[in-house]
Design goal:
Blueprint (H helix, E strand, L loop, with lengths): L4 E7 L3 H12 L6 E7 L6 H5 L7 E5 L6 H9 L6 E4 L5 E2 L3 H14 L4 E11 L27 E3 L1 H9 L11 E4 H7 L10 H9 L4 E13 L5 H12 L5 H14 L6 H24 L5 H15 L1 H5 L3 H10 L2 H13 L6
Parallel strand pairs: 1-2, 1-4, 2-3, 6-9
Antiparallel strand pairs: 4-8, 5-9, 6-8, 7-9
Helix pairs in contact: 5-10, 7-9, 9-10, 10-11, 10-13, 11-13
Length: 350
């Protein structure tokens, strides 16, 4: 019996991207899948695009109401019927071997009686023309994912998975490269809208409290980096809200509570999470000065104070103290130049 997958594509407009996502699923070497497309009241005729593909494994549903991104993710996944779910954006593209390689890991774990909470693969970040890119947006509303973490291929328990993901740098995976058991999602819930920009991080870290993680260190997803994506909109909303907690920090605290309820969490793990939250506040402090919709020096000061409250060592015990001072004192052009140099030489705030 082969592993069965449900590929969920929650979509709103994005008519120029949807066909490519569908075709990347149709091209899979592993044939046991269904494709579920949840239309969030698009202004464009997505049904006509889906209708071009005569495959009984494809199902299209247009919802009668428009909801937020997290809510549409959840209700689209609720339509899925197969054992494992992958959540794909309309501008994501699966490598043709993606499902097959994930299925191999799932079946290997089953033969060894290893309970899996998810299988995660590496991904490539590409521009709208499919070319590799290291810049998410040109208006400095988010980081440049130049410095990737090194996560070796293999098996991770809950503590080790949290450790590698709290390390400085950008995790080399995206939500579209995560396969999740449908029954586990039904038990613990999927996306939490209150997590905003980091709803995907919160879900993946929370899932790890319920089983082991298989990581495939092969890029099996192309993640398209573009300025008008939902990610960009969530970043802008987070910046404008001036919330007391960064979305990234809220996600880690939520995941921590889930792990505490199921296992003993070490002091070292707590310190790593606090350091990750501190770096996220420092990152937002820079954005307060650099982004068009940032809050300026006053907002940067608040974020630096919060960063120190979570991990004074992170702010004062390394070169990041200069990041904090720069966020307050440096002119915008100098911050841009220093940030570019920092990424070139591997210095990362997050």
């Amino acid at each position: 019996m082969t592993t069965s997958f449900s590929i969920a594509i929650p979509v709103w407009n994005d008519d120029e991207w949807l066909a490519g996502a569908i075709e990347s699923v149709l091209g899979q070497t592993h044939a046991d899948w269904e494709l579920v497309i949840g239309d969030n009241q698009s202004d464009t005729d997505l049904a006509a695009i889906v209708g071009q593909y005569a495959d009984s494994r494809i199902r299209y549903h247009r919802w009668s109401t428009h909801v937020g991104a997290s809510e549409n993710h959840n209700r689209t996944m609720s339509l899925c019927r197969n054992d494992w779910i992958l959540l794909l954006s309309a501008d994501d593209r699966l490598d043709r071997c993606c499902l097959g390689k994930i299925a191999q890991r799932i079946e290997q774990a089953a033969r060894s009686n290893v309970g899996l909470a998810m299988v995660v693969t590496a991904c490539r970040r590409v521009d709208p023309k499919g070319r590799p890119t290291d810049i998410l947006r040109g208006d400095y509303t988010t980081y440049r994912p130049f410095h990737f973490q090194q996560i070796p291929d293999g098996h991770y328990d809950a503590a080790t998975w949290l450790a590698v993901n709290t390390a400085p740098g950008i995790p080399p995976w995206m939500m579209g490269s995560v396969a999740m058991p449908r029954e586990l999602l039904a038990e613990i819930g999927a996306f939490r809208p209150e997590m905003g920009l980091s709803h995907d991080l919160e879900l993946v870290m929370r899932l790890a409290a319920y089983g082991n993680v298989e990581y495939i260190d092969t890029p099996l997803l192309n993640y398209t980096v573009r300025g008008n994506s939902i990610t960009g909109k969530l970043i802008k909303r987070h910046m404008q809200s001036r919330s007391a907690m960064v979305d990234f920090g809220a996600a880690w605290l939520s995941a921590l509570h889930a792990h505490e309820a199921r296992r003993r969490v070490s002091c070292q793990e707590r310190e790593r999470i606090s350091a990750a939250i501190s770096r996220a506040f420092l990152h937002r402090a820079l954005l307060q000065r650099r982004a068009v919709n940032g809050g300026g020096v006053r907002a940067a000061l608040r974020d630096i104070w919060q960063a120190a409250s979570y991990s004074r060592r992170t702010v004062l015990g390394s070169w990041r103290v200069f990041v904090a001072l720069g966020a307050i004192l440096a002119p915008g052009w100098l911050l841009d130049r220093l940030t570019t140099m920092g990424h070139r030489y591997g210095f990362v705030v997050v």
